[in-house]
């Protein structure tokens, strides 16, 4: 859910190289109505609609058309792990924050302030054929980096997050070692304003299989609290 998912769905519909597809989700948002109208989505299943009054009226006025394309099911079905696995879903979720090893925070700002609940993201992320997380690389005009050494809160572990996408690029983490994942996320997804810092952290942090410096791992968050910017 959210503006990012709406924007991504809209762009998927605009891409001529992507054939019509089916959607299996917990919630259907505004962009899905247009994609159904244009036959870019051939069918959509969810447990609820979060759309504007105009789009809802459009569905009511064209019920014969939409009734064969939208199925609303109980959440026990839409979020059922076995069904998600059986369908081979490609799951698209939005994160607030990622760390350099691929853990994702999708609910808590700075680890303490609740932004939203986890919703169905955990059900889809853990059981999808391919789990993709998306976010802008920075927030607040660069004062906040989405990519940090360690997440301030973890909703989704590195074992389930397979791909991370920001406007900077794509980090495909499948089959990579922890240090390979870290370098791929920094190089492909972190904003240039923060890449040098993240690389220095990774290279200077002690460790074996995973490198972390627990005395400095939350320096970006401390800077944000103290100065209003992670850059300090």
From TrEMBL:
<keyword id="KW-0808">Transferase</keyword>
<keyword id="KW-0378">Hydrolase</keyword>
<comment type="similarity">
    <text>Belongs to the acetyl-CoA hydrolase/transferase family.</text>
</comment>
<dbReference type="InterPro" id="IPR037171">
    <property type="entry name" value="NagB/RpiA_transferase-like"/>
</dbReference>
<dbReference type="InterPro" id="IPR026888">
    <property type="entry name" value="AcetylCoA_hyd_C"/>
</dbReference>
<dbReference type="InterPro" id="IPR038460">
    <property type="entry name" value="AcetylCoA_hyd_C_sf"/>
</dbReference>
<dbReference type="GO" id="GO:0006083">
    <property type="term" value="P:acetate metabolic process"/>
</dbReference>
<dbReference type="InterPro" id="IPR046433">
    <property type="entry name" value="ActCoA_hydro"/>
</dbReference>
<dbReference type="GO" id="GO:0008775">
    <property type="term" value="F:acetate CoA-transferase activity"/>
</dbReference>
<dbReference type="GO" id="GO:0003986">
    <property type="term" value="F:acetyl-CoA hydrolase activity"/>
</dbReference>
<dbReference type="Pfam" id="PF13336">
    <property type="entry name" value="AcetylCoA_hyd_C"/>
</dbReference>
<feature type="domain" description="Acetyl-CoA hydrolase/transferase C-terminal">
    <location>
        <begin position="57"/>
        <end position="201"/>
    </location>
</feature>
<protein>
    <submittedName>
        <fullName>Acetyl-CoA hydrolase/transferase family domain protein</fullName>
    </submittedName>
</protein>
């Amino acid at each position: 859910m959210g503006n990012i998912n709406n924007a991504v769905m809209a762009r998927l519909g605009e891409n001529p190289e992507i054939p019509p597809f089916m959607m299996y989700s917990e919630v259907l948002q505004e962009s899905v109505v247009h994609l159904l109208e244009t036959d870019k989505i051939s069918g959509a299943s969810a447990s609820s609609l979060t759309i504007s009054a105009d789009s809802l009226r459009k569905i009511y006025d064209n019920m014969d058309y939409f009734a064969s394309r939208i199925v609303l099911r109980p959440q026990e079905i839409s979020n059922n792990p076995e069904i998600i696995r059986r369908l081979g879903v490609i799951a698209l979720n939005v994160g607030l924050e990622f760390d350099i090893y691929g853990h994702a925070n999708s609910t808590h700002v700075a680890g303490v302030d609740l932004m939203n609940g986890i919703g169905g993201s955990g059900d889809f992320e853990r059981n999808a054929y391919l789990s993709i997380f998306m976010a802008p690389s920075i927030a607040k005009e660069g004062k906040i980096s989405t990519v940090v050494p360690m997440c301030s809160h973890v909703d989704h572990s590195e074992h389930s997050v397979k791909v991370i996408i920001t406007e900077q690029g794509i980090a495909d983490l499948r089959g990579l070692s922890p240090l390979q994942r870290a370098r791929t996320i920094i190089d492909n997804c972190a904003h240039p304003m923060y890449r040098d810092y993240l690389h220095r952290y990774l290279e200077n942090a002690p460790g074996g299989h995973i490198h972390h410096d627990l005395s400095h791992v939350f320096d970006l968050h401390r800077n944000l609290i103290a100065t209003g910017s992670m850059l300090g």
